[in-house]
Specification:
single chain; about 70 residues; mainly alpha; two-stranded antiparallel ribbon; 3 helices; 2 strands; about 10% strand; globular
C-alpha cells in the first residue's frame, strides 16, 4: 500500500474534481496536505484514515467547537 493517496482516491474521497476544491474539503476535515508544483494535492494515507476515524491531525477542535479529547 502506498504512503500517499492517489489523485483518483483524493477525488473520490472529497467528491471534488479540482484541487482547489479538494483542498477546501480536506481543510474542513482537518486533513493536512501539500500542494505539488503541478497544483495537485499530496495527501497522506494515515492522515486521511485518522480523519475518517474522527480524529483531527492538525490539533484544532472541530468546527462545532467540541473537543472530545478533554474530559468534563
Amino acid at each position: 500500500m502506498n504512503l500517499w493517496l492517489s489523485d483518483a482516491e483524493v477525488a473520490d474521497a472529497t467528491r471534488r474534481t479540482y484541487p482547489a476544491a479538494q483542498g477546501r474539503v480536506l481543510k474542513a476535515w482537518g486533513v493536512p496536505f501539500q500542494r505539488r508544483p503541478d497544483g495537485t494535492l499530496q495527501v497522506g494515507r494515515a492522515a486521511m484514515e485518522a480523519a475518517m476515524a474522527g480524529s483531527r491531525m492538525d490539533g484544532k477542535t472541530a468546527a462545532n467547537g467540541l473537543n472530545w479529547s478533554k474530559t468534563a
